[in-house]
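Objective 1b: paired records.
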Amino acid sequence: VYIVAPYSDVPAGTSVFVRLYQDGTPIEDTSEIQADQDYHNTCLNFVFEPIEGTFDPGSYEAEFFVNGNPAQSVNFEIR
């Protein structure tokens, strides 16, 4: 599963990670990245891979955390 934040402005020192939820339960966090400089109109990419095989069917949410604080999220279904 690819989680993307296109056209993002990220000031130097900003830390970002994404938390993946399945059916409302947190199941995995990406590694946190930290901007080493100011980025303008950049694309942030995060990847979640199943441990074995494929992801289980269900409702998922990917929530961005910026400097440790919840930010935007996206909901999706895996069937």
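Objective 1b, second protein:
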Amino acid sequence: MLVLSQAVVATEPLQALVLKHQAELQQITDADSALAYWQSLAPELANKDGRFENTLGELLYDLRQMQKAAEAFQRSHRLDSTFAPPVVNLAMIAVDLGEFKTAQSMLNKAIPALPRWYKGYYVQAKLDLAAGKYDEAIKAANESIERQPSYEAYHLKSYAQYLVKDFEKAHQAALEARSLDPTIAGEHQHIEIVLGSLVKLDKKNEAIDFSKTLPALVGDKVAAELRRTTGFEQKYLSGIL
């Protein structure tokens, strides 16, 4: 069970130093290298600044080191209980763990504290989607996108739109997600949304053209599975592939 500590530990004004290191961190694209760089700063900043610990948690989360990430977010909150980002990040882990009530409680505190930050609304959308509240997920994703467009929010929105059978908007959101991060082009769920939406919209030529790109993206076996699960084969099977 994830809980928030009520303790507040006074720290020295290290924000400027952390921001300097965060700017340097942005130049590192490899996730493992980014974590190694940030951990090298631990002797100077660990257990002293909430922003340092929150960034450490985010790097660990990206590498799916969930327990260590949660511990870093907890340290961040203990060091500065007025700093809301680690609460949002803990809520995200709570969603991953299926602790929906805990996640909602955290978001109820964090989102009002950071009303213009995109990530709180993104995590709310993620929670709503996981809870089967698809319309609410779309609304929260739009709130996130309005504050800062991100491929994560667009991808989540595209999936929620797909589940409520609004295939035109699902397709549009999926293309927006891919424009922000082309690497998702080969992801199974993204392909299913794009191809499935084209099939449901009966955009035959676009569906055929997209289907032909699948083996290069995911291999023949997965491509065949996607053509079957999206209904492509049933609708357009005519020896064209």
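The chain has 15 helices and no strands. Residues 3-10 have pLDDT under 50 and may be disordered.
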